[in-house]
Write a structure and sequence with these properties.
This protein is of the alpha/beta class. The chain is built from ten helices and eleven strands. The strands form two sheets. Strands 1, 2, 5, 6, 7, 8, 9, 10 and 11 form a nine-stranded mixed beta sheet that branches. A two-stranded antiparallel ribbon has the order 3-4. Strand 9 and strand 10 form a beta hairpin. Helix 2 crosses helix 10, helix 4 runs parallel beside helix 5 and helix 6 packs parallel to helix 7. The longest helix is centred in the middle third of the chain and has 17 residues. The chain starts with a helix and ends in a 6-residue tail after the last helix. The N terminus is likely disordered.
Length: about 270
Amino acid sequence: MLKADLLKEPGNLAGVRHIILILSGKGGVGKSTISTELALALRHAGKKVGILDVDLCGPSIPRMLRAQGRAVHQCDSGWVPVFVDQEQSVSLMSVGFLLEKPDEAVVWRGPKKNALIKQFVSDVAWGHLDYLVVDTPPGTSDEHMAALEALRPYSPLGAVVVTTPQAVSVGDVRRELTFCRKTGLRVIGIVENMSGFVCPHCAECTNIFSRGGGEELARHAGVPFLGSVPLDPKLTRSLEEGRDFIQEFPQSPAFHALSSIAQKILKETPIQLS
């Protein structure tokens, strides 16, 4: 089916220029943090961004963007994503909006999860976006295959793979790179998260974990290394309170790292649609 035909269909992704999957073979590396801050950095670069949260068992992005408790409405084209800013430059869809209680557990088997992911892709009226950032659960499970199969027909796809510096994390993320290679998913680059700790008093960065694991992995895998993001109490507090870290803390080392990563992604994904 041609793009022109897809544009006529309601509730599809024909108006999305680039889709970026945030992946990792390891849980707890900060995929949701990177997804949220990357979306905000792209927004401040003048782009219109959507976030699709397919981490169905741990939908944390609504809290990170202070969108908890918001309602998802229907329109002729399907579900309307939740806009998290007045300019409507960042939109979000998450299973968190569909739960009756915020602490309700999603106890679903694979087929039901896969069906919801496909519904998110086909029935959400994203409209025109420069970037759709897809936050995924850890591993290479059914959810990843369902998301990849549902998204592939619509737009150029790329993956940002997130790791932490430790060897255990790097080993698991190496398997994620194998997943990308087997499925033909282009790797835009690797991000090393939690790379050092920024002191809230003197702003000095201390490597409380090891350092350089992500960069070494990128070199061995032959993919770009996008940058290292340090642990920063200001970033943690911003995520807990749903504040815009990119706007509020431009002097933070984490801000410079995240902005640099966003700029590299912009260069890696030139706009192909008018």
